[in-house]
Structure formats: structure tokens, C-alpha cells
Amino acid sequence: MSEPLTLAEAEAILGGCKARIVELGVKMSVSVTDPRGDLIAMFRTDGASWRTPDISRGKAVASACMGIASGELSHRAGDAIFLPFTMIQGGNFIMGQGAVPVYRDGRLAGAVGASGGTPQQDEEVALAGVAAAKLASRA
Asked: What is the pLDDT of residue 112?
């Protein structure tokens, strides 16, 4: 594992996410975590639902912990191993589309998750943030 995302990198990701959110005209929350899933930074746009911050973080946690996009975990949500893991994480492990891992130099550095749009919009916003920070969503 590489060094986790810095606050400056997280802020760059959030800036890219905000720009894409404005383009899409949606209201959402975005969370950036380190590789363990610990929160580095997040925001909730004006008018976004009260539940979107927790959902965006839960998606980012899932992506960070597994090193893949959270949507790739959706089909495994009912697997025996993931239900207890979700419980251990206090419900902060959401296997739904909308988060992507962040890699620096081929090593996992964190994840970004979004909530408030459609699942596709959530992932699109997360990917826009990673691209704006000039980082990668795949190793």
C-alpha cells in the first residue's frame, strides 16, 4: 500500500467532483477516504438529502477496502462473508455503484464515493474527481 491521499489531493478530487455535479445539475455528497476507509474529506451540496453523506462514505469505504469500484461488489452483497463484514464496519460498507478506488503509482491510496444521483451519475462524479486530481482509478 502506498501513502494515503493527502488533504490537498482529496481537495483536488472534491473540486473535480463539484465541477461534474454542477454540469449534471444534481444534488449529492462526496467522500474521500484513505486506503483503510477512514474519511479524509467530504462535502454535501445544498439541497442534497441528509442521508447522502453516509452513503457516499459507505461506498468509498467498500471501494477502498477491496481496491475496486463499489459497483463491482453489488452482486456479492448477499455473500456470507460480506454481511458480517458490513456489520463489523457499522454499516459503513456499501456495495452499490458510486465509488472508485484511487491509485497513485499503481498502489492504492484511497477511494472516492458519491451519492445523490443515479448510480451511474454517482460513479461518473467519482471518476471525474479522480481525473481532475490527475490520479488513476485503476492500478
From this structure: 98
What span, in angstroms and rounded, lies between the C-alpha atoms of 57 and 62?
A: 9
Angle at the Cα of 109 from the Cα atoms of 76 and 43, rounded to 5 degrees: 80
Question: Quick one: pLDDT at residue 81?
Answer: 77
Is residue 31 in some structural domain?
yes
Share of the chain above pLDDT 90, in %: 82
Average pLDDT over all residues of the chain:
93
- Residue 138 within any structural domain of the chain: no
Task: Give domain status of residue 92, yes or no.
Answer: yes
- Cα separation, 63 vs 138, in Å, equals 11
User: What is the residue whose three cell numbers read 453489488?
Assistant: 74
What's the total number of domains in the chain?
1
Residue 79 in domain: yes
**Cell 477496502 appears where?**
65
pTM over 0.70: yes
Task: Name the residue range of residue 38's domain.
Answer: 7-132
Distances (CA, A) of 36 to 1, 25, 45, 82, 129: 10, 31, 25, 16, 19
Can you list the alpha helix ranges (DSSP code H) found in the chain?
7-24, 52-66, 82-88, 119-132
